[in-house]
Write the structure tokens for this entry.
Amino acid sequence: MVQCVHSVQELRNILKPLKAAGKTVGLVPTMGALHQGHATLIATSAKENDITVVSVFVNPTQFGPTEDFDAYPRTLDSDLKVVKNAGGDIVFAPSPKEMYPSEDMTWVELTGNITKVLCGKTRPIHFRGVATVVSKLFNIVGPTNAYFGQKDAQQVEVLRRMVKDLFFDLNLRIVPIVREESGLARSSRNTYLSAEEKAAAVVLSQSLKKALEDFKAGDHNKASIIEKVTKIIQAQPLSDIEYVECYGLPGLSELKDEITAPSLLALAVRFGNTRLIDNIILE
């Protein structure tokens, strides 16, 4: 039976004796609307830890004023079933007031290139919101291991830096992208797509796969790889490219003319009103 708790104190009261008994705790932070990608994170945590906590919280501070906070799906009842089936133990589903009790906010913010490129260009407050809420979750849960998906590659790099800089005593576990049979990366926002848009969006994974093939075949020129991916996506008339970019790993370092392995090739593309992201590591 999955326990669902809504307050910080209740969660801490549950976890304290378990930790005192030497139990390991895995944390899977989510915004709900759970799908197979989330289930993979939860199952991985359940395999590697004694207790798995899944947070379900649509975090208001990572949405810009024109973004889809109000429309973001909230499906707690079905989320509980996903957590149970994947082997999770506790769902932490706080209210915004529980997570942000003070009107005068305390922020966790990373400066530098890492939050200014890729999605940071058009979503300037997004990663401040992510870093702040994840820091809160780390402090509330005190996990042994915390699980995130590679689909949110920039978020992964931001959190790696935050964990290092703020000396969080935990392990970040990054799980590969979970894809549908078509190759489309699983995402809560896929539910916004029409059937036609969903079929068209398969071009994202196809373009990234081709880029990796070309890279392994010897094309390490950054402009060439980006141009090829862009042309493949633009050939799909329903696509509207926001960016196709390549940065070095770790830390999203700037690349000049040549791509050095490993590097992140990432993209954001709109299909109708739905913004999708995807990526692949060139190595």
Residues 126-141 form the longest helix (16 residues). The longest strand covers residues 239-248.
